[in-house]
């Protein structure tokens, strides 16, 4: 089983330099006023539902046609069974605990480091080579080394997730700081603001959209790293459960794992998207 | 035909600061390094502006008019010469010199009211006092209905009115405006010119206003400074003896047309600089 079959996150990582906060999915400006826009949105929703139902139907048909898939009802009953046995809850909690710890620590460190790099050229000069170097290494590729150094407990897994979240978010924050509109800084200066005030009242709010995009990318990357790390070394968690199921040729459990991973990733991404729209609603959209 | 300007008082400035200029630019030279070669943005520019005078600076692009403004704002340091405001050398930006930018430079995450309060907050004013002052300037520029709107909800003209209110709120002694209406359509521009003069007549300040629009330069000013490029220098100075308030009648008068033609010729038919030894 390869890690690449796991596609846990619905997040399409966007380039850190892309215009942040432009909404997801991109809603085209409807020319015909609110009514037409609303009806178009309804059409899109209907198509979404049709697509999902159709997809499940195809899965079902393929399963019945003799492919080695479990049918949808089998997967559902397996999920119920795992839920009642308590293993599903246990696995979800184990996985969520790891991903949230790693992700929150990674973002919490990435934001100040990104600000330092954007604001002070000394920090940029010292840190940038390392960040650029580690950015090209998938955090999972470090797992063998981390396992040797940190043992096989929770620490190595949390560490690689931390690294995944940190690298995604630090670059984005740094981009945000260096791309703050010079005119806004000038405007604050001529109103009497000194460095500290400019930082807190101009640079921080102006880079928020970039930070949030970095966090979304970081979350996607954390989630991907987590599941793969669990496939390699864990005693509980969704990835571990799927790994075990693979040994016993238990396809229904593997399907439950995949669906739950997808749903959790989607929910976390939507939560961040919600935060993004609350915090960066001031942006002008073109 | 270059004329040197000396300290002078305009009718608006008779109660001014006893003969000394409010803004005094003395032999300012500003050069930029440009690929092995030196670009002279300002070449020995001297200009005095009296208290409460409204001076417009007009000229072709590259004549250094924005550089001159940035030097006065403290955003750029002259290579040589002095820029003084109220007799003190300009060493950096400060709230006593309000600046209005062409790109509005409103903080997009703050409402109109919060934008206007920004400078007051920096100055350490209490909440009630901030609010009261902001209210006054919101009314002055006629943005009452939009006080709690974000900049993205405003039209270009409204954004610039908000920026003007924000600059006024910190009570600067001079206002520096860098092509503030340059990005607006012609109709909005005319309206804003009238509103600016209305605001200025109620809250008198010394204004230096950069523009590339000859009509605008003549309509607003006590005095029009025409600059020339390569090197950036003052080419001509035209006094505008038209009465305030400047109404549409003034704008359509033959006197206005005559001044406009005079400035037009100065801007569009400049003789090249004499080669310097």
What does this structure look like?
The complex is a heterodimer of chains A (286) and B (277). Chain A is mostly helical. Chain A has two domains: 32-69; 70-279, MetI-like fold. Chain A is 74% helix and 0% strand. Chain A contains ten helices and no strands. Chain A has helices at 33-64, 72-85, 87-119, 121-135, 143-150, 154-178, 182-190, 195-232, 238-247, 251-279. In chain A, helix 7 packs antiparallel against helix 8 and helix 8 packs parallel to helix 9. Chain A is flat. Chain B is an alpha/beta fold. Chain B has a domain at 1-93 and 205-277: Rossmann fold (3-Layer(aba) Sandwich). Chain B contains eight helices and ten strands. Chain B has helices at 65-73, 112-122, 127-140, 156-169, 186-202, 214-220, 248-251, 254-268, and strands at 23-34, 37-49, 54-58, 80-85, 88-89, 97-100, 174-178, 206-211, 223-228, 233-239. In chain B, the strands form two sheets. Chain B has a six-stranded mixed sheet, sandwiched between helices. In chain B, strands 2-1-4-5 form a four-stranded antiparallel sheet, covered by helices on one side. In chain B, helix 2 crosses helix 3 (127-140), helix 3 (127-140) crosses helix 4 (156-169) and helix 6 crosses helix 8 (254-268). Chain B is globular. Mean pLDDT of chain B is 87; it is low at 1-18. The chains are: A mainly alpha (286), B alpha/beta (277). The A-B interface holds A 181, 183-184, 186-193, 197, 201-202, 205-206, 208, 281-285 and B 73-75, 93-95, 97-99, 101, 103, 105-110, 118-119, 122-123, 150-152, 166-167, 170. Chain A: The chain crosses the membrane at residues 46-67, 99-121, 133-152, 158-177, 198-217, 247-268. Chain A: This is ABC transporter permease. Chain A: Keywords: Cell membrane, Membrane, Transmembrane, Transmembrane helix, Transport. Chain A: Pfam families: BPD_transp_1 (PF00528). Chain A: InterPro entries: MetI-like, MetI-like_sf.
């Amino acid at each position: 089983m390869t890690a690449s079959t796991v596609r846990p996150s619905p997040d399409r990582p966007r380039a850190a330099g892309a215009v942040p906060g432009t909404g997801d999915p991109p809603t085209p400006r409807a020319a015909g006023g609110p009514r037409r826009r609303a009806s178009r949105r309804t059409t899109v929703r209907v198509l979404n539902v049709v697509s999902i139902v159709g997809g499940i139907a195809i899965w079902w048909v393929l399963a019945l046609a003799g492919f080695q898939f479990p049918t949808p009802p089998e997967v559902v009953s397996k999920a119920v069974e795992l839920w009642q046995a308590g293993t599903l809850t246990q696995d979800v909690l184990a996985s969520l605990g790891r991903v949230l710890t790693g992700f929150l620590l990674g973002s919490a460190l990435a934001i100040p480091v990104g600000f330092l790099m954007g604001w002070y050229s000394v920090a940029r000069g010292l840190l940038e080579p390392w960040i650029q170097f580690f950015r090209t290494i998938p955090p999972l590729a470090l797992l063998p080394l981390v396992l040797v150094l940190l043992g096989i407990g929770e620490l190595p897994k949390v560490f690689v997730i931390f690294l995944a979240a940190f690298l995604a978010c630090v670059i984005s924050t740094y981009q945000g700081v260096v791309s703050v509109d010079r005119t806004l800084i000038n405007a604050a200066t001529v109103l009497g603001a000194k460095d500290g005030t400019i930082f807190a009242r101009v640079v921080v709010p102006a880079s928020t959209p970039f930070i949030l995009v970095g966090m979304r990318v970081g979350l996607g990357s954390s989630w991907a790293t987590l599941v793969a790390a669990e496939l390699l070394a864990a005693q509980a968690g969704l990835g571990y459960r799927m790994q075990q199921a693979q040994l016993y040729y238990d396809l229904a459990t593997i399907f439950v794992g995949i669906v739950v991973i997808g749903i959790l990733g989607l929910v976390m991404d939507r939560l961040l998207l919600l935060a993004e729209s609350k915090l960066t609603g001031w942006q002008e959209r073109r | 035909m270059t004329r040197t300007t000396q300290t002078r008082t305009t009718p608006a400035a008779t109660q001014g600061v006893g003969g000394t200029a409010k803004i005094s630019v003395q032999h300012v030279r500003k050069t930029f390094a440009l690929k092995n070669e030196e670009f002279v943005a300002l070449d020995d520019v001297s200009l005095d502006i009296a208290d409460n005078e409204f001076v417009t600076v007009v000229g072709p692009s590259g004549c250094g008019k924005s550089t001159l403004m940035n030097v006065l704002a403290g955003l750029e340091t002259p290579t040589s010469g002095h820029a003084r405001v109220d007799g003190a050398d300009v060493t950096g930006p400060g709230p006593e010199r309000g600046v209005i930018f062409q790109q509005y430079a409103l903080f997009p995450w703050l409402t109109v009211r919060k934008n206007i309060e920004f400078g007051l907050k920096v100055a350490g004013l209490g909440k009630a006092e901030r609010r009261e002052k902001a209210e006054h300037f919101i009314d002055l520029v006629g943005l009452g209905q939009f006080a709690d709107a974000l900049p993205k909800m405003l039209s270009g003209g409204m954004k610039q009115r908000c920026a003007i209110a924000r600059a006024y709120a910190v009570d600067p002694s001079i206002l520096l405006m860098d092509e503030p209406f340059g990005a607006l359509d012609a109709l909005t521009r005319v309206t804003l010119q009238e509103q600016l003069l209305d605001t200025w007549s109620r809250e008198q300040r010394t204004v230096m206003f950069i523009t590339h629009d000859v009509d605008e330069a003549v309509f607003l000013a006590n005095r029009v400074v025409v600059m020339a490029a390569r090197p950036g220098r003052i080419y001509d100075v035209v006094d505008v003896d038209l009465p305030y308030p400047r109404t549409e009648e003034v704008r359509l008068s033959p006197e206005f047309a005559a001044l406009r033609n005079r400035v037009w010729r100065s801007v569009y038919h400049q003789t090249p600089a004499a080669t310097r030894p």
